[in-house]
Each structure stands twice: as structure tokens, then as C-alpha cells.
Design a protein that fits this description.
Among the domains are: 131 residues, no CATH class; 143 residues, no CATH class. Helix content is 28%, strand content 22%. The chain has eleven helices and 16 strands. A hairpin with an 8-residue loop joins strand 2 and strand 3.
């Protein structure tokens, strides 16, 4: 390491910008150097902003032009990769899932360095991460002249470099994953349970297939939930507070945790690639496309590698993703369940986010005198032994505060958590009792969060004072289910 003097410029490794002056003869190399400098400066700005998805790039299971080929539908959108490059898709596409990948030639444009890792061959029975990376190609032609050509063009060259994207499918190799943590061991067990069931399902049709799919549903939901939290690093970070100085004592310090960091450390997930979705492809086809297991909003880099839970924006981004992942998975469960009221948290999930919103029926909710929409979960049936002592009411204008506070907490492990605080939203209840028929909702929050209920006196025979806040009531709302 060279010594430097105070107040002396340090130019080693700096960005080279073309210096223009009158009389200079410019060559193509000079203009290329200018473009390269601009690209490097944009990358610096991109890295300062953070990596993740800016907007769009939503992934769902599609059909594509060939119904015999499995395809993933991706909407237009914008992302930034970890190198600071923009990844922009201008129009929706259907990405055919195939077992081979075309490796981009080093002569194909600006982003040839972002080639997919070699030796990664997809099989049809695994979990995958769909990624998007920047790509470029040459388009059009322009005449190429020289000082000796007398104004005639002896040939042509490519006129434009077009920036675009390329998609990749990265297999996780679930069946060969180590069981170094209890959650990874659970993922292996669930995967081993599901694999032969989907082989059987692939050979069935009609009612027999529907019945088996319904039997598999709780195990499949647990597997999806476990894989999501392996990506969030929930299992690894559970040990952080037991030994907070462990990360700080590493040399060099590392904030790596979760499946995505493992893949980066192994060289499979490059800094050019932006993860978009987690896909489970079984013998009976694609079983789920889960965006928020791996998708992240724009997130700044770590302020400190040594304190991943206390200072870094990354964990807040992951907990937000955990909430959105849960809400998406729950919506899918309700859409496919023949009897949503029979769905229970313990049967379908291993972890819950620190807060969530659930559609519920009015079954047994005595504070609701109107007729809400009939669809939804049975509230006490879903939470079972985790149901809080009271189902409180809270105000709608308190929800943002409740969620902002709850998202600073870690996910809730159903194996070790007792009561989960449940709330009804007062404005939602009033709308139903006034004769409307909106969906009745319940908000749940980790028991670690301070109580957010609003005490109300609700007389059993006289509703004139319904909703009146009383200063001398206890912290619990009077509400019995």
C-alpha cells in the first residue's frame, strides 16, 4: 500500500474522462472512453441508491405462445443490480423455462461481463430463483469510412448498442442442501415428503387429482413458507441476540445470512443478477411462483457488516418482504381452499410476519351486528392456541403506526410463540354494522409489540354509546368471541 501525502490528489484507479481541447483529433477510442466514464459514474450513483426492484417486474405463471412449454409472465419494470447498473424491461414478456441457457458472447455489447455462471444446468424437479440481468446487443448499420476512402464507404459497422435484459433460472438444489440449521432440515423433510406425492399427482386427473391436491396443500404451504424464511435468513439471525458480538469478531466482518448470500458466496448468484421470484417445479408442474421470497425493494448497502439487525436498512426491507410474501401466499391459499374456514396457522405456516391483515368471517364476533361478506378465515380457528386473550379494536388512523412499529420486529415462530395479539378495525366494524357488506378484517401483531388497542364500552342492550372511549376502562377492549 503506497503512502500518500496530505492535500495531494490520489488518482490511482480513478475514472478516466476524455479531455477535450481545440485542435485535438478525436478517434473512436476517445468517444468510447467518454461513454465508459459515463457508465462508471452512473454505476457509482446506482450503488449509492441501492439494489433491488424499483417498480414492476412482477412474475406470475403464464402460458406463453406454446401451451406445451412452461412460461413465466414478467411485467415491464425497472431494477438496479448490486453493481449499480439499471435493469429495464420496456414491455411484458413470457419467459419459457428451458433446461439450457445461452451464454452471451464477449463481443455482444456493454454487459458481456454479466454472463450467467457456467455449469448450472436446470432439471425439472427443484426450487429455482428467476433472475434478471442487464444485457446489450448491436443493432442497425452505419457506413464506415477512412481518410483514404475518398468519401466512399468501403464497409459498414453496427450503428447502435441497445441495452436490454436477460433472464436466468438458478436451481437451489434443495435435495442436496445441508441441514446445518433446524429450518434447513425442515425444508429437506418437507421436500422429501412432497416429491413422491407430486409424482403420484402427475398420473391422476379429475376428482382424484383434486382430492390429492387438497391433501398436499398444507404441506406445500409449509414448504413455501420455510423456503421463504430461508431466503430471509430468519433461522440464522435467530442466534444474533444470543451472541451479538459474533459477527463483529469475524475477520473480515460479514453480514451474510440466508440462501441468497449463500448463492453469492458460491458464485452462482452474481452481482449483475436481480432476483425476481422463487419457483417450485415438481413432477406435477410448477406449484408456486413466490415473488417476495427473493424480491426486494431498493435497499441501501450495509452501514455496518458487524450489526446486521440493528443498523442496516436491509433487515427492514426483508421484514417488509416477509409481510408481502405472507399476504400473497395467504391470498393463494384462500383462492384454492374449498373451505377457507378450515385453514389453520399451525397447519399451513411455520413462521408468520410480525404483522398481517386477514379476511375473516363474522362467525362468533359479537361486536359485529351487521352482515359482513361471507368469505374468509375463522379467526379463532386459524390462530387456535395462539389467539390472544382479547380481540381488541383499534382505529384506522393507528394502522400505519402499528405496521411501522411491527415491521421493526422479527418474524413470529409458531413453534415457540404463545398468544398473538388480534385486532378488529373500528371503522371496518362500523361500516358493516351500518348496513354495508365489506369484508371483515382482522389485524394481527407479534406479542412483542406494545398493545395498540383502543378501549371501548359496548353495552349489550343499548348501542347508543357504542364506540365511546372510557378513561377508566382497562387496557383491554370489552369484546368477547
Amino acid at each position: 500500500m503506497a503512502n500518500v501525502q496530505l492535500n495531494a490528489p490520489v488518482l490511482t484507479g480513478g475514472i478516466l474522462n476524455t479531455n477535450f481541447f481545440n485542435g485535438r483529433v478525436l478517434a473512436a477510442e476517445d468517444l468510447t472512453a467518454l461513454q465508459t466514464a459515463n457508465a462508471q459514474q452512473r454505476r457509482q450513483l446506482g450503488r449509492a441508491i441501492g439494489a433491488g426492484v424499483v417498480c414492476g417486474l412482477e412474475v406470475t405463471l403464464g402460458t406463453g405462445s406454446d401451451p406445451t412449454v412452461t412460461a413465466l409472465h414478467v411485467t415491464p419494470g425497472l431494477a438496479l443490480d448490486r453493481k449499480g447498473d439499471a435493469v429495464a424491461l420496456s414491455a411484458a414478456v413470457d419467459v419459457a423455462i428451458t433446461p439450457s441457457a445461452q451464454v452471451q458472447s464477449a463481443t455482444n455489447g456493454l454487459f458481456a461481463a454479466c454472463t450467467p455462471p457456467q455449469g448450472v444446468i436446470s432439471t425439472n424437479l427443484d426450487c429455482y430463483i428467476l433472475t434478471v440481468s442487464p444485457a446489450s446487443g448491436l443493432q442497425g448499420s452505419a457506413p464506415m469510412t477512412s481518410a483514404l476512402s475518398c468519401g466512399f464507404a468501403p464497409g459498414c459497422a453496427s450503428a447502435n448498442v441497445v441495452e436490454g435484459v436477460q433472464f436466468g433460472l438458478l436451481p437451489l438444489g434443495v435435495s442436496t442442501t445441508s441441514n446445518s440449521t433446524p429450518l434447513r432440515a425442515q425444508a429437506l423433510q418437507l421436500y422429501a415428503t412432497l416429491a413422491p406425492q407430486f409424482v403420484t399427482l402427475a398420473g391422476l386427473s379429475g376428482a382424484a387429482a383434486s382430492n390429492l391436491q387438497a391433501q398436499i396443500a398444507p404441506t406445500l404451504s409449509q414448504f413455501q413458507n420455510v423456503m421463504a424464511h430461508l431466503c430471509f435468513g430468519t433461522d440464522v439471525l435467530q442466534s444474533f441476540t444470543a451472541n451479538p458480538f459474533a459477527a463483529a469478531e469475524e475477520d473480515p466482518p460479514s453480514a451474510g445470512y440466508g440462501l441468497l448470500d449463500d448463492l453469492r458466496a458460491q458464485g452462482y448468484l452474481t452481482d449483475c443478477a436481480v432476483p425476481l421470484a422463487l419457483i417450485y417445479w415438481s413432477a406435477a408442474g410448477v406449484q408456486f411462483v413466490d415473488m417476495w421470497s427473493v424480491r426486494r425493494q431498493i435497499t441501501q448497502r450495509e452501514a455496518s457488516f458487524s450489526w446486521p439487525l440493528l443498523l442496516n436498512e436491509r433487515r427492514r426491507s426483508e421484514i417488509t418482504a416477509a409481510f408481502l410474501q405472507f399476504q400473497g401466499q395467504m391470498q393463494s391459499i384462500l383462492e384454492n381452499a374449498s373451505d377457507p374456514s378450515s385453514v389453520t396457522a399451525d397447519a399451513y405456516f411455520v413462521y408468520l410476519p410480525p404483522c398481517g391483515v386477514l379476511p375473516i368471517t363474522g362467525q362468533g364476533v359479537t361486536i359485529v351486528t351487521g352482515t359482513p361478506a361471507a368469505s374468509g378465515l375463522d379467526l379463532t380457528g386459524f390462530f387456535g392456541a395462539h389467539t390472544s386473550k382479547d380481540v381488541a379494536t383499534t382505529n384506522g388512523d393507528m394502522l400505519r403506526h402499528l405496521f411501522a412499529a411491527a415491521l421493526e420486529y422479527e418474524p413470529v415462530s409458531l413453534a415457540v410463540t404463545g398468544k398473538i395479539q388480534l385486532y378488529l378495525v373500528w371503522e371496518n366494524v362500523q361500516a358493516i354494522n351500518a348496513g354495508g357488506s365489506p369484508q371483515l378484517v382482522s389485524v394481527f401483531a407479534t406479542p412483542e409489540l406494545a398493545y395498540q388497542g383502543v378501549a371501548r364500552f359496548v353495552p349489550s342492550t343499548d348501542t347508543a354509546g357504542e364506540g365511546t372511549a372510557m378513561w377508566d376502562l382497562s387496557r383491554f377492549a370489552r369484546h368477547v368471541i
